[in-house]
C-alpha cells in the first residue's frame, strides 16, 4: 500500500544525488530509505532507480512517480494549512452568570478576540438555572457558572471560589467592623435576592446553618437593584465577591462574612456528548485566567 511517507521518500530521493543524502534530509537511515523504495517498487511493479556501485540514476518511470509524489505532498501540505486555518474560525456560544459576565468576561473576550479574530463568540448573561437549560438544550456550548448537581450528561471543570461579603453604606454601624458574622445581620433590615438567584441559595444556607430567622425587607431579582436599595439606606445585603464589578465606584463598604464562610464553586460546565470546536480550549484558558484574577482583585 502506498503511503504518504513513501511518496515523501521517493520525492526526496529523486532530488538528492545519493540515497544517503536523501536519508539524511529525511532524518532516517540509508538502509531504511532503500528498503522503503524497494517495497514501493514491488508494489508498483516498476523500477524507480537504477543502482550501480558508483551511481544512482532515476528512471523515466521513477521521474513520473516522483512528480506525482511531489504533487501529492503539496496537496497534503495545502490541506493541512486549510485545516489549521479553519481551526481558527467558527462560532461558540457561552452562558455565564451576570456577575462573571461583568467581572471576568470583558477582559477575557477582548484578549481572545485579538488571537482569534475570526471566531464569533455569543454571550448570554443569565442566571444559573437558565444557563443549565440553555446548555442542555444545545443553545450554548459552554456555561460559566456554579457547580451543578452531579449528572452523567454534564462535565464540570472547577476554576475558583468566590466568597460571600456584607455590602452596606459607609455610615452603617456594621461598616465599622473589620469582620462580620451572619448572626450580626440579625436586627438589621436585609435586602435579599429572589429564590431564582444563586445568591439567595447562598444566603439561605448561611442563615439556616446558624439557625437565624431573617425575613428580607425587600426581595429583588437583580444585584444592581439590591445595591441601589442599600445605597439608599434601606438595608444591607450579602453578595459574592464576583458581583463587586457590578457596582464599582459606589460609595459602599464590603466586609467578609464569616461563621460560616460561604463560598460558591465557579467553573465551566459542558455536555459530555458534545465535542467543542478546536479553539474552545484556548477560550476556556483565557476565561480561567481572568476569572481567577477577578476573584483575587475583588
Order of helices and strands: HHHEEHEHHEHEEEEHEHEEEH
Largest sheet geometry: 8 strands, mixed
Described by the principal axes of the CA atoms, the overall outline is: rod-shaped
Share of residues in strands: 15-25%
| Overall helicity | 40-55%
Rounded mean pLDDT is 90
What's the architecture of the largest domain in CATH terms?
3-Layer(aba) Sandwich
In the CATH hierarchy, what is the class of the largest domain?
Alpha Beta
The assembly state of the depicted protein chains is: single chain
**Considering the protein shown, what is the CATH homologous superfamily of the largest domain?**
Periplasmic binding protein-like II
Protein name: LysR family transcriptional regulator
Keywords: DNA-binding, Transcription, Transcription regulation
Pfam families: HTH_1, LysR_substrate
Family: Belongs to the LysR transcriptional regulatory family.
Describe this structure in words.
GO terms for molecular function: DNA binding; DNA-binding transcription factor activity. This is LysR family transcriptional regulator. Belongs to the LysR transcriptional regulatory family. It comes from Undibacter mobilis. NodD regulates the expression of the nodABCFE genes which encode other nodulation proteins. NodD is also a negative regulator of its own expression. Binds flavonoids as inducers. With 298 residues, the protein is an alpha/beta fold. It has 3 domains: 4-86, Arc Repressor Mutant, subunit A, CATH 1.10.10; 90-159 and 267-297, 3-Layer(aba) Sandwich (D-Maltodextrin-Binding Protein, domain 2); 161-263, D-Maltodextrin-Binding Protein, domain 2, CATH 3.40.190.10. It has helices at residues 4-15, 19-26, 30-44, 60-86, 98-103, 105-115, 128-136, 198-209, 223-231, 280-297, and strands at residues 49-51, 56-58, 90-96, 119-125, 142-146, 154-169, 180-181, 191-193, 218-220, 237-240, 252-258, 263-271. Strands 3, 4, 5, 6, 7, 10, 11 and 12 form an 8-stranded mixed β-sheet that branches. α1 crosses α2, α1 (4-15) crosses α4 and α2 (19-26) crosses α3 (30-44). The chain is rod-shaped and about 100 Å long. The two termini are 62 Å apart.
